[in-house]
Amino acid sequence: MISQKKAEILATAESDAKGGIEKRNIQGRDLLSLLIKANMATDIADNARMNDEEILAQVPTFMIAGHETTSTAAAWALYALGSHPAVHAKLNVEARAFYTDTPSMDELNGMTYLDYVTREVLRLYAPVSQTDRFAKEDTVVPLSEPFIDRHGVKRHGFRVRKGDVIVIPILAVHRLKSLWGEDADEFKPERWEAIPEAVKAIPGVFSNLLTFAAGAHACIGYRFSIIETKALLFSLVRSFDFELAVPRSDITRQTMIVARPFLASDTDKGPQLPLILRRVKSD
Fold first, then answer.
1. Which residue from 170, 80, 71 is spatially nearest to 117, judged by alpha carbons?
2. Would you write out the chain's pLDDT as a tens digit for each of its 283 residues?
3. If DSSP states are collapsed to H, E and C, what string results for 151-214?
């Protein structure tokens, strides 16, 4: 399949006077074609290209991994809004004052408080609590602060051997009080008006967060996930008022690749988030 699509793309390129493929020329609607064309573009570095197997692997990444994480983020957003009426009310004002039910992507990104709420949800309730990486070679990882090892020696870094697994504690970093302040465990969208200076050292691909990881292996669909989450929240808040149908203390978090909401009193029924929804009356 990939070989056939490559041949079709090359045939089209050869009929072009320029005889080359550039990212700005990429057209087509299906995901696989877009990935192949982007990978064949002449204006990207060779070390940024994927092989055919890696290209094919991106399709379920978009369709399955993206679906699970985005839907989980939306669930935690509803939990946060349902348990913080003041935030819910403030977001209501912004969303319900907008002139259309179908804003463009740029218009969604231009909604300031919706942006703050989305970032805060992705910080405090990151769908993936941690990830890991395999060391490709022996190295020493530097530390921002030294520590004393079990032999009483002061260390400014720790040794990593080739093949070691390094766990990246996403949620722990997002709730670290030394970075985010004493209110790090609180849902507070207003913090994004001016984040602490220490947070700016977090090397995330989005907004100094590790929600979508960082570097060459960052989430390939993070921009899509962000705008999808904003669109969901905009539509729901514009149409409904909602609140938790159970005490907040009964909502717990269980991780099965992604961290979903459960009822502490009824975990056997699997993930659930009982809400009371009230339809907003049209003027």
1. 80
2. 777 766 776 666 665 545 555 545 445 567 788 888 888 888 888 888 888 888 888 887 777 667 888 999 999 999 999 999 999 999 999 999 999 999 999 999 999 999 999 999 999 999 999 999 999 999 999 998 899 999 999 999 999 999 999 999 999 999 999 999 999 999 999 999 999 999 999 999 999 999 999 988 888 789 989 999 999 999 999 999 999 999 999 999 999 889 999 999 999 999 999 999 999 876 6
3. CCCEEEEEEECCCCEEEECHHHHHCCHHHHCCCCCCCCHHHHHCCCHHHHHCCCCECCECCCCC
First-to-last C-alpha distance (Å) of the chain: 53
What residue has token string 């300031």?
112
How far apart are alpha carbons 10 and 8 in whole angstroms?
Answer: 6
Contact 94, 113 (CB under 8 A): yes
- At 96, list the tokens: 């319900």
Q: What is the DSSP string of 54-115?
A: HHHHHHHIIIIIHHHHHHHHHHHHHHHHHT-HHHHHHHHHHHHTSS-SS--HHHHHT-HHHH
Nearest CA to 27 out of 15, 19, 18, 36 is that of 36
Whole-prediction pTM value? Answer: 0.80
